Amino acid sequence: MFSVEVRDRIMIGHSLPDPFFGPAQNMHGATFVVDVAFFRETLTKQNVVVDIGAALDVLNKTLKPLNYQNLDVLPQFAGVLTTTEFLCKYVFDAMAAAAKSGALGQDGAGLARIRVTLHETDLARATYEGTLACAGPPSPSPATSTCRRAATPMTGGCWRNGATWASRRSTSPCR
Q1: pLDDT band at residue 107, thresholds of 50, 70 and 90?
Q2: Are strands 113-119 and 125-131 parallel, antiparallel or unpaired?
Q3: pLDDT confidence band for 133 (50 / 70 / 90)
Q4: How is 57-125 classified by DSSP, letter by letter?
């Protein structure tokens, strides 16, 4: 599996109003280094995974509305605990939508999966990784499918320092 990873950073303010979070219930700031890795089974005809410039641009556009903002007052996060894990999934969803919409160029259509990692410090990070639906129409039979991931369930999960934090499963649309 080939991969390319791009990086950006954001500075945010937020609170996590739940006793579980102890002192982080109060307003505090965080500076995140954000890594997004794109994976594909084979290289494009240009021998790349994805256009790095397009990937950097999409990541920047995804993070820009959050940078230097208090996440507690942004409408898209109303009533949500904006944990590092949650923000990983938020960035993943934006990057997956960009791949499907063509914002990553034609290369985006052939991506197998995306991994988003937010580094809180050099000691703590969270990750969300998910499989993307394969390009092209689904095959009615796994035996005749042109999608190599046809019989593989899509999985995504959020890991914190290597330990499984949460996961979800759904059936691949390529069956």
Answers
A1: confident
A2: antiparallel
A3: confident
A4: HHHHHHHTTTTTEEGGG-GGGTT----HHHHHHHHHHHHHHHHHHTTT-GGGGG--EEEEEEESSSS-E
Give which of 146, 151, 155, 144 is closest to 175, Cα–Cα.
151
Specify the length of the chain in residues.
175
User: Phi/psi at 101 (nearest 5 deg)?
Assistant: -85, -15
The amino acid present at 19, given as its one-letter code, is P
Q: What does the pLDDT look like over 58-104, one tens digit per residue?
A: 999 999 999 999 999 999 999 999 999 999 999 999 999 999 999 99
Alpha-carbon distances, residue 127 vs 29, 33, 81, 164 (angstroms): 20, 12, 16, 10
Q: Which helix (H) or strand (E) holds 54?
A: helix 52-63
What is the C-alpha separation between 70 and 118, in angstroms, rounded? 17
Q: Name every residue whose Cβ is closer than 8 Å to that of residue 7 and which is 6 or more positions away in sequence.
A: 33, 34, 35, 36
Number of H helices, E strands in the chain: 2, 7
Q: How many angstroms separate the Cα of 95 from the Cα of each of 51, 66, 78, 80, 142?
A: 13, 15, 22, 20, 28
